[in-house]
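call fold(seq) -> tokens
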Amino acid sequence: MIGDIQHIGSAAVLLHPDRHSPKIAGMVSDPEIELIAVAFAIKHEEAEGRVVESVEADNRGFDLISRKPHPEDPKTALDVRFIEVKGRSEIGDIALSSNEYKTAQRMKQDYWLYIVTHCASNPVLNVLRDPAQLDWQPVVKIEHYKLRMDSPLQPVVLHEQPTRYGGPKQT
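ret:
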């Protein structure tokens, strides 16, 4: 027998209670809204005479590479934009992933943030060049949980008994 099983505690994982509030709802990812936003950004760039390449699946820190071809040599680009697209159904806060933010910091003036608002009705494009210089606030995300053995709420007592399955030998 390995040992007695003891119930130490329970945890419940719930959806954010304010996920439908106006402040939080806009931050919830919506693939349909993102598709609308990217399509709108591509349409805008193409209307400006640019050639757009989607790199969304490559995790490069941006979604699109947009090139303005030279009028006499289409293989030469006069200007290149590395564009991250964020879409919102209405208007709301924008968050960049760590990779997106670090890429924006590194690329500076070559990095563009296209924020497409009102994707659910009548999309509006807002263009920001070098967005890393703006007043971004870090979003703290829990990566790990720690169980304290000396918890004042519910101390945990571990039984250190020899095992029969090859653990350390007791002398």
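The helical segments are 22-25, 31-47, 98-107.
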